[in-house]
Amino acid sequence: MDALMQWLQPFSNTLDDPKALQLIFASMLGLAIFALLIAVTFVVMGFSDPLRQRLRKLETSSAGAVTGEAGASQWLGPMGERLVPTEEKSKSRIARELQRAGKRSPGAVNVFFGVRLLLTVVPPILLLVLLVPFVRLDPVFSMVMVAGSAITGYLLPRFWLERTIKRRTRLLRRGLPDALDLLVVCSEAGLGLGAAIQRVARDLEISHPELAEELHLFGLQTRAGMDNKSALRDLEERTGVDDIRGLVTTLLQSMRFGTSIAMTLRLFAVELRDKRTQEAEEKAAKVSTKMLFPLIFCVFPSFFVVALGPPLLGAMAALAGR
């Protein structure tokens, strides 16, 4: 503890000096302006390079993005292009997470890092330029607020990505039982696996659009020449859902050993239904334990006041009368 206080002593002395605080504030403002100039330089370099302009046009046309998203990617992509990790493992991991979040455009990784750079640089600059000079705040609080806005802007895209992946995973798991029932009906009617998946994708476009999009992409891959096994592996990797991974494994084993696809789908649908029932029973069993906390901290105090309040007041009055 004494060593920590001795290590923090120079910082406390610095914060007590107004000139040192002004110097620190000026340094932070200079660093923020320098970071903004670097971001503007990245944007200008990205716009001025004809090769990158041509590649972005091809990526936009192949991805079929809407006008607003295409415009955003054109000026956010160059900002994040310099920040993309050079390691192929890290880059592929982020690209896979963006795919699981539903962002499959070729420039999604660049746009992600461009948004992160924008949210990291712009809010601190706005605070330093618009709020701090006109509002009388403590210098230490101003520096903490600027640093906190930069850290929040850096972490916010990651938080959004994780939330989007969880939401999309939940929607895919919710639509899988209906898709399995339709697949069983189509397979027993005589359709092959590819034709059955395409038919189910058309039927689920309104009720479960996320799962229908994944199945439709599977159909496009098979029609483009990819075999069913590779397309199923890509579906498993692209979604990252445990139930879909189990379905893909079951179908691959059925193809390998030559068993009936319809019977395999029916058995897996029964197993998935039992698994969902067990999950529902487990959640129902946890309700009684979870209800203890609101009962103890919210219901019981008011019940005790209503039930024991009048007798306590009468006892206090009787003791005061004696």
TrEMBL record:
Compartments where found: Cell membrane
InterPro entries in UniProt: T2SS_GspF_dom
Transmembrane segments: 20-47, 108-134, 140-161, 292-320
Domain Type II secretion system protein GspF: 180-308
Source taxon at top rank: Bacteria
Cross-referenced Pfam families: T2SSF
Keyword annotations of the record: Cell membrane, Membrane, Transmembrane, Transmembrane helix
Main localization, broad class: membrane
Membrane topology designation: Multi-pass membrane protein
Listed PANTHER family: INTEGRAL MEMBRANE PROTEIN-RELATED, PILUS ASSEMBLE PROTEIN
Name by which UniProt lists this protein: Type II secretion system F family protein
Organism: Vreelandella vilamensis
